[in-house]
Amino acid sequence: MIEYLQQLDTELFLFLNSLHCPVMDRFMYLFTGRFIWVPMYVTLLYIITRHFRARRAIVMVLGIVLSIVIADQLCATVLRPIFERLRPANLENPISVLVHIVDGYRGGRYSFPSCHAANSFALASFVWMMIRKPRTRAFILIWALITCYSRIYLGVHYPGDLIVGGMIGIIVGTGCFYLSVGVLRYIDRHDSHRHDPVHTLRFHGKEFTVKVADLMMVAGVITTLIIMIISLIKGASLTDF
Q: Which residue of 53, 69, 85, 173 is surrounded by the most CB atoms within 10 Å?
């Protein structure tokens, strides 16, 4: 049964990894980066500080950090050394000759489970529980899913790595959220007054209202558009040769 699942996992990986083009190479390579999403993370920090009093904001931020650290270390330090599953792109893996590689990127040695998937879904789960707005939830879920797909596209993770990593992230992120809520209830038995202030943006004389809770989504969408533009420019230049 395990051998069948591994074979199915490999076949699905090879199929998905084979779907590529120069523009998507650039897009996925940039999208999977950690630092390119700093503006979105900073915006999330701003949202928390605007919606919660200082003491509560600190607890929520620490909850997010704790969820990412636990998910990351559980995958990287605990589980990977146990399973020792080689990355598809690792040169010691027999299927590496069939894997589409972007800019020589092959990642580390082991792949199961995926730290990217665990970290992304830990953050997404915490945000999902904290900001209960459908559009924000939809955005953070799509962001986490594309992050996971980028790892298959770049040839560094099997689908199974991502599924298990994502499940770990969801469990850890949700657990840390409820832990944070429990700490807040212990510190202050009374519900805090949360406000949802509105920022007004001006564009060519017109006004658009953007709620603070939506700013993270706006930052993420803008970052994605920038990635797309860079990918189109670089992808087009590559096809000229």
A: 173
